[in-house]
Amino acid sequence: MPCPTVPALYAINSTRVCVANCPPGSFADNSTRLCVAYCNTTTPMTYGDNSTWSCVVQCPIEPWYFADPTTHLCVDICPGDSYADNSTRTCVYPCVDTTTFADPTTHKCVTTCPDNYFGVNGSKRCVTGCPAGSFADVLLHLCVAKCSVDPIYYGDPQTKLCVE
């Protein structure tokens, strides 16, 4: 028999006791009424929210967290080679929105790369050096095949920058 929903109680399997708050390092799972080490990895997928110690379908906006599908946790900074996507509120690789680039300085998907970084349309990444055949446009923060005409800039093959 599961723990009661009113008041909201969750079972600790090891002690066979119902508690209002799951012990540190475990999450309250509303669907099973259990304290679990990992939230549901099947449909509906849930994520462990460290701010409430509960399993949630969507990570909280305050504080601003993103769902990490690898660890099934809500995180403030996406790990490894993944990036925070504001539109889906998940950690993704590559950035799925066609207007965003993966910013290695913040681990977020951004519409404009930070200073000294340039967006590469093919890889959807912000880079410090543009690939062969392209130039760094400092106005647009993009790697471009042709530099802008308004104002008039030219591609410098030595620096790989668009210059006046």
In whole angstroms, how far apart are the ends? 75 Å
Q: Mean of residue pLDDT? A: 91
Instruction: Note the main sheet.
Output: 2 strands, antiparallel
Structural class: mainly beta
Helix content: under 10%
How large is the count of helical segments? 0
What's the number of structural domains? 2
Task: List segments where confidence is low: pLDDT < 50 over at least 5 consecutive residues.
Answer: none
SSE topology string: EEEEEEEEEEEEEEEEEE
Strand content: 25-35%
Architecture overview:
This protein is mainly β. It folds into two domains: about 1-75, no CATH class; about 80-164, no CATH class. The protein is built from no helices and 18 strands. The protein has strands at about 10, 15-20, 25-30, 35, 45-50, 55, 65-70, 75, 85, 90, 100-105, 110, 120, 125, 135, 140-145, 155, 160-164. It has a two-stranded antiparallel sheet. The termini are far apart. The mean pLDDT is about 90.
Give a short summary of the structure:
The chain has no helices and 18 strands. With 164 residues, it is mainly β.
List keywords for this structure.
single chain, 164 residues, mainly beta, 2 domains, two-stranded antiparallel sheet
